[in-house]
Amino acid sequence: MISHVFTELKNRIAGEVVVPDSPEFDGPDQLFNQVGSSAITVYVQSTNDVVTTISFARKHDLPLSVRSGGHGLSRQAMHNGGLVLDLTHIQQIELLDAEQHLVRIGAGARWGDVAKALAVHGLALSSGDTKQVGVGGLTLGGGIGWLVRTYGLTIDSLQAAELVTADGRIMRVSAEEHPHLFWAIRGGGGNFGVVTSFDFRAQPCHTIIGGSVIYDASEAEAVLTAWASSIHKAPEALNSTIELFPGFGSQIPPQITVKLCYAGEDQAAAKKAIEPFLHSGIVRSQNIQKMPYAAMLEDEVSPPPGLRLIDHGGFLKTMDREALSTLAAHYGQPGRPIAQIRALGGAMARVSPQATAFAHRENEAVVYMATFAPSSVTEEEARQIRQAAWQPLALMSSGAYVNFVSEVSEKSVTDSYPEETYTRLARIKASYDPDNVFAQNHNILPAERRLRHYGK
């Protein structure tokens, strides 16, 4: 069957079609935190290829996964035995309007390439931490990036998008065109169609002033407290993350890393804003300097061979003493999970929680926890590890950032969206994907199916 349908699809699209017995196949997919082998992988080259591939998957009743960067923690950017629609060849980065700073970016582009391309025009977009993260996945989940306090989420710069629906329609969505769908794709993930390109309004940004400060792990609570106090007083131009790292064997000792990104070229103002973060404890090293914004994006670090990353996250309404003490006591020490705390607020918080499907704007921080386990663990074992690692923060956190969720369950979805937001998303899902073709994600059931399944 695969050989027959392989030929059928290959003759209909401009892109590349790969199956396990084709010459192009070079073994199972090796993606961040996941290994697998789809029955068919389609590397589309155009929107028409996307239309054809969706139609093909539906015709042959093949489960459909959509992949932009392949960095998804939920392990759903592939599907063993199904069809993967891979967008990595749709990676154009165009300046549409220099005066208005409008840019068009293909969903398969990577944020490292985007940052470099926009720098040529003196522009930047708030994006992910690592160069290899795909534009599509990060944007659809919201986009908490290095300029979040200064310019908001990635979706707050989104002006329009091109999208292919489950029934093959090619649609342009914006505040004026299909506004309900435009609302949904700003935080609702890949539930509503395959987005092929995004139109953003970028921000002027030639360089930033930033880098990292590394503190001794023994001073975790003091450093956390000083960091939180400093970020409360910092201008919105300053963005920061603090990471509690337990060490890794004899290679990397336990440490606390404060990362800083000041969005502006005024070195005197940047120095004043950054100065309080340099005196929170015993400094092991620091590297604060003027640099291109693209330099803030790091190379991806995949889990070591044989290990799988198990993570969880949630939002902190306030970074109070109880939360900081809990983080210091339970994370970042040898044998404990990694914890990363990202400061929010600023421009992100000034957007109404109802304006987009990302609804967690009132929180001061988002916390991301990660621990390693053997790749062979079952999903039930992973769930137990995740629950135990997150338990100290469970009662003082709320919600979840869909891009930081590796668990695939109804709870992971309901944690990501308040009930009112989820209900609205489910209704929009029912309008554009009533058959739930796009189910290989943090899935929002179409409204009618949800009622039948959960009785509410």
TrEMBL record:
The cofactors it requires, by name, are:
FAD
- Check the record and name the PROSITE patterns matching this protein: FAD_PCMH
| Keywords for this protein | FAD, Flavoprotein, Oxidoreductase
Domain FAD-binding PCMH-type span(s) in chain numbering: 34-205
Give one Pfam family: FAD_binding_4
Give the highest taxon in the source lineage. Answer: Bacteria
Looking at the keywords, is Lipid biosynthesis present?
Answer: no
Tell me which family the UniProt entry assigns to this protein: Belongs to the oxygen-dependent FAD-linked oxidoreductase family.
UniProt protein name: FAD-binding oxidoreductase
Write down the species.
Ktedonosporobacter rubrisoli
